[in-house]
Q: What sequence folds into this?
């Protein structure tokens, strides 16, 4: 009887499947792969990838070098010598939230060293995935790995005095990353509150 069931199943499955994989099917697959890659790029970088020949990269969108020189002019225009000592309040004015509207550089601090990350607005700008870290010193969040979501739910703070050696090593790795990629523009000077002196 078990043999009859096996024979019935094989008899119900046709040997020949009608149809073919045509050009339209190939285009559908390629479009699906392209759209999936766009979603991944948007999730990782915070901006949509558009090939250079298709983008509108005319006079309206300055290149990175002119953008960086524009921000160097920002410091001179506002009579700020670099390196500059930033207070917490002063640093907060340079978050990625309004940098484009106010024509300000985007700054973040790691272990009280302030870096100008304006050359990567896709990561740190108004819609950037790492905007949370701008305009402040989030050293305590740099104890986490790149894809560790705990960094996004942990409030930012500059104090890492209670970190163990493994956490400090991770902060040093992030510091080296920023130091190798972005210019340092100063230091964060933390105001000491009168209650801390007692």
A:
């Amino acid at each position: 009887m078990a043999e009859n069931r096996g024979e019935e199943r094989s008899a119900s499955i046709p040997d020949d499947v009608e149809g073919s994989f045509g050009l339209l099917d190939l285009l559908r697959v390629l479009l699906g792969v392209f759209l999936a890659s766009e979603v991944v790029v948007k999730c990782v970088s915070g901006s949509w990838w558009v090939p250079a020949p298709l983008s509108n990269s005319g006079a309206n969108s300055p290149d990175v070098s002119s953008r960086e020189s524009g921000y160097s002019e920002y410091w001179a225009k506002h009579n700020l010598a670099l390196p500059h000592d930033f207070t917490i309040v002063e640093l907060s004015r340079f978050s990625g939230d309004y940098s484009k509207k106010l024509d300000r550089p985007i700054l973040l601090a790691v272990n009280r060293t302030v870096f100008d990350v304006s050359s990567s607005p896709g990561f740190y700008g108004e819609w950037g995935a790492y905007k949370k870290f701008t305009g402040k010193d989030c050293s305590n969040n740099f104890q986490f790995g790149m894809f560790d979501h705990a960094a996004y739910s942990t409030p930012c703070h500059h104090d890492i005095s209670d970190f163990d050696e493994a956490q400090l090593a991770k902060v040093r790795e992030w510091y080296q990353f920023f130091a190798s990629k972005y210019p340092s523009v100063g230091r964060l000077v933390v105001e000491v509150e009168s209650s801390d002196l007692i």
